[in-house]
Amino acid sequence: MRNTAKTSPREATSKHRLRKAAVWSHQFPFTFSGCEEERSPCSQRCCCGYVKFTTLKVRNLSLFPAAQREHLHQKMSENGALPRGGKVLTVDTMNANVKKVDYAVRGPIVQRAVQIEKELKEGVKKPFEEVIKANIGDAHAMGQRPITFFRQVMALCTYPQLLDDNKFPEDAKNRARRILQSCGGNSIGAYTTSQGIECVRHDVANYIQRRDGGIPSDPDNIYLTTGASDGIVTILKLLTAGEGRTRTGVMISIPQYPLYSASIAELGAVQVNYYLNEEKCWSLDISELQRSLQAAREHCNPRVLCIINPGNPTGQVQSRQCIEDVIQFAAKENLFLMADEVYQDNVYAEGCEFHSFKKVLFEMGPEYSSKVELVSFHSTSKCYMGECGFRGGYMEVINMDPEVKAQLTKLVSVRLCPPAPGQALMDLVVNSPKPGEPSYQTFMMERTAILSALAEKAKLTEEILNTVPGIRCNPVQGAMYSFPCITLPERAINEAKAKGQAPDMFYCMKLLEETGICLVPGSGFGQREGTYHFRMTILPPTDKLKILLNKLKEFHQKFTQQYS
After folding, report:
1. What is the 3-state secondary structure (H, E, C) of 73-134?
2. Keyword annotations for this protein (predicted)?
3. What are the pLDDT digits (tens) for 139-151?
4. What pLDDT digit, counting tens, does each position of 480-493 carry?
5. 366 exposed, middle or buried (CB, 10 Å; 0-12, 13-18, 19+)?
6. Rounded to whole angstroms, how far apart are CA atoms 423 and 231?
7. Helix, strand or coil for residue 247?
8. Which phi and psi angles does 253 have, rounded to 5°?
9. Exposure of 360 by Cβ count < 10 A (0-12 exposed, 13-18 middle, 19+ buried)?
10. Based on the number of CB atoms within 10 Å of its own CB, is 17 exposed (0-12), middle (13-18) or buried (19 or more)?
């Protein structure tokens, strides 16, 4: 006899879901088990539109569309329902934040450039004979010669038997002896203290004091780092906290150096963009900072403001007044300041001068110098040194809470210490040859020649790019890069979008394939909607830079004609 008992709405819904689950199970290659409570499908639904199960036993999820497949794997991971016997670590089970990391400077174009180099070596015919990598600020890779004094001392530190060789000047030997005597067992191969070799930290503090006109610097506030990047990531770790609307927001300039967006993504913080003013030579407007901050407070807790001066990728040098305005803004809005000053010797434009944030802060008086929390960063990788591979750097912390500083010291101790050779090289940067010492004249001659050549190439780059219709380049006031704006034909933009590429990525990839020139698209650094750029270094030797710029000029004209 047919059961005519009335079905409750809940029972009807449950039966409907069971029927749908059965159909779904039949159509797709997996089986399911129900939720713990009722051993039946859960009452919730996935955002992909399918019934969500507590456990899925996968046979082949590859039949699902990518977005749904990723979501299902995520839910299965959360529920501990991933298949056994396969890989423990897969793209679907790894840290989701890592997948959000993007670092354009070594992205797809650079990977393709490496492939092309291999093809050229294998005899594959190209319309060019070499790849010119103008994508990254790696001075020595571009042909810059190392500073003699630096390499002499590093050789002595690495192979102390050379201290008996009379080919080395006495001031180089004295520097090496002092560094080695501060290392365990008189060896640069020993671990150092986590904060860095003490005599190096004292030399860094003395350097900062000289640079800033006598404003004191405490060696205890100096942390030696594995390049500036390591210090930046460490400080961002300290600052990242909260959930939802209380999650830390990090204010970064757009265009920005991708280290910042990558680190923010990895740490799960919130990226808060403020835009530099391209029409005013990439200047920083306080009104834009205010707009950005107010908008961000609707969805997160902005706690930190990052400044790059001189700028990367935009090459601007901030005026003293601009730095004062930024400090006043940070004080008013209770923001932690991070000043990336790794290009502090790279200032070329007439009327421009580097001002450290610390110096300006203390010259503004106790109202600010006793309150504003600041960390500034420097490195051996840029300026005239270009010693990227040694990974030397430092950070100076100002007005940091003592308890937080103790946590910082604990955090850096987990990684034991920065590379000792990098620390030694940092010491030579801040304690270079002095007048009257044997190496002084050669050192100054080499330093001046490098910086003068960079200034010449900065001007050359701006001048040649501005002769090309459809390319507009601001003055390269400092740092090592130009970041010109390019006008792209509508057909090229549409073709790029059809291929799923950013238009300037499409442009740069074609440039690489046709000319061998490797640049980084502006989309990798961030830019205003509807604008397109690329970043190129000014580091190649002058003769090669001229070839690069002329090839670029010819390509842009051809590209524009092709897609018009």
Report:
1. HHHHHHCCCCCCCCCCCCCCCCCHHHHCCCCHHHCHHHHHHHHHHHHHHCCCCCCCCCCEEC
2. Aminotransferase, Pyridoxal phosphate, Transferase
3. 898 889 999 999 9
4. 999 999 999 999 99
5. exposed
6. 13
7. coil
8. -70, 150
9. buried
10. middle
Per-residue pLDDT tens over the stretch 345-379: 999 999 999 999 999 999 999 999 999 999 999 99
Question: How would you classify the pairing of strands 222-226 and 520-521?
Answer: unpaired
CB under 8 Å to 227, separation ≥6 — which residues? 379, 380, 381, 388, 391, 392, 393, 422
Give 103's contacts (C-beta < 8 A, 6+ positions apart).
258, 259, 262
The pTM of this model reads 0.80
Tokens of 58: 């996968």
CB-based contacts of 479, cutoff 8 Å, min separation 6: 137, 310, 311, 312, 313, 314, 315, 343, 346, 382
CB 249 within 8 A of CB 269: yes
* Residue 505 tokens, joined: 């990525």
**Contacts for 322 with CB less than 8 Å, ≥ 6 apart:** 283, 284
Cβ neighbours of residue 157 closer than 8 Å, sequence gap 6 or more: 176, 179, 180, 188, 421, 424
Q: Which two tokens stand for residue 306?
A: 């990052």
- Strands 30-33 and 222-226, bridge-based pairing: unpaired
Give residue for tokens 């680190």: 263
Cβ pair 483, 313 in contact under 8 A: yes
DSSP state of 539: -
CA dihedral 388, 391, 396, 400 (to 10 degrees): 130
| Beta bridge partner(s), residue 270 | 249
**Bond prior to 258 in cis (omega within 30° of 0):** no
Ranges of beta strands (E only) in 128-276 are 132-133, 222-226, 248-254, 270-275
Q: How many whole angstroms separate alpha carbon 86 and alpha carbon 102? A: 28
